[in-house]
Amino acid sequence: MMMWRCVPVIALLWLALPGHAADPRSKLTPGATATVTEVVDGDTVIVSPAPGGAPQIRLVGIQAPKLPLGRKGFKAWPLSTASKQLLEKLVLRRGVTLHFGESRMDRHGRHLAHLFRDDGLWVQGAMLERGMARVYTFPDNRMLAAEMYALESAARAANKGIWSLRYYQPRAADPETLLRQLGSFQLVEGRVQAAAKVKGRVYLNFGDNWRDDFTATLAPKSARLYAKSGLEATALEGQRVRVRGWLRKRNGPMIEVSHPEQIETLKE
To answer: How far apart are CA 266 and CA 99, in angstroms?
Structure first.
């Protein structure tokens, strides 16, 4: 699988055209059909009847702005209420069909599914197209990443929804700035100054001093998965890229890359 490149605005008519050649359902496995009875937040709903006894559906592949949802001390992310309201408008009391790519359940007992409305609209695609969510893939759930990145890129170029706010915009690979964002999910852009593999682990350094500068790193298993995409991660040296993930501190700020879709190459 090749890395995903930034793409221009694309037509979205296929979002509501079942059976169209570009219909994303063709890549997925269909599951149960149900009615959405409650929207928890911008990427989670409850349906009835509950497929397999599990009523909660996590819209796999996207991350909407988070609400506290009873978590003590948790501050709502900007536009979290607006994101929930959009999802309510799209699916509440509507029939939806679950479609699966890879892993089907998470550790919380939620279905991990792409949702398609009864008229064929792809719900994840609609949230991304309107700028009310961003792409959020996992090693065991990477299906439709290219299609989702295309929609996210178009929304970001148009400053729609979350992309109108600095809070969500991609950040430069500046260590001082990134250190203030530790523990948050970020999109970081910069040029890979050096790439090295040490005991199977790949380090992508974005500055001259690896002890302080931003680094993206791939564990040996992740590096092997990346290689299966047709390109060694060390070949990114010298390229401008966008890395997304949770910022941690290991020497300087760091993102652990677990699968190829976390890295996008950028046009010069």
So the answer is: 31
- Report pLDDT digits (tens) over 215-254: 999 999 999 999 998 889 999 999 999 999 999 999 999 9
Task: State how far the Cα of 167 lies from the Cα of 186, in Å rounded to an integer.
Answer: 9
The structural architecture, per CATH, of the domain 171-265 is Beta Barrel (2.40)
Over the range 2-18, which residues count as b (16 or more CB within 10 Å of their CB) and which as e? ebbeebeeeebebbeee
Please state the pTM of the whole predicted model.
Answer: 0.89
CA Rg value for the chain? 19
Q: Domain map of the chain by residue range?
A: 4-164, 171-265
Beta strands at 194-198 and 252-256: parallel, antiparallel or unpaired = unpaired
Q: Cα(33)–Cα(116) distance, rounded to whole angstroms?
A: 9
CATH class of 4-164: mainly beta
pLDDT at 52 over 60: yes
Report the largest interatomic distance among the alpha carbons of the chain, rounded to a whole angstrom: 56
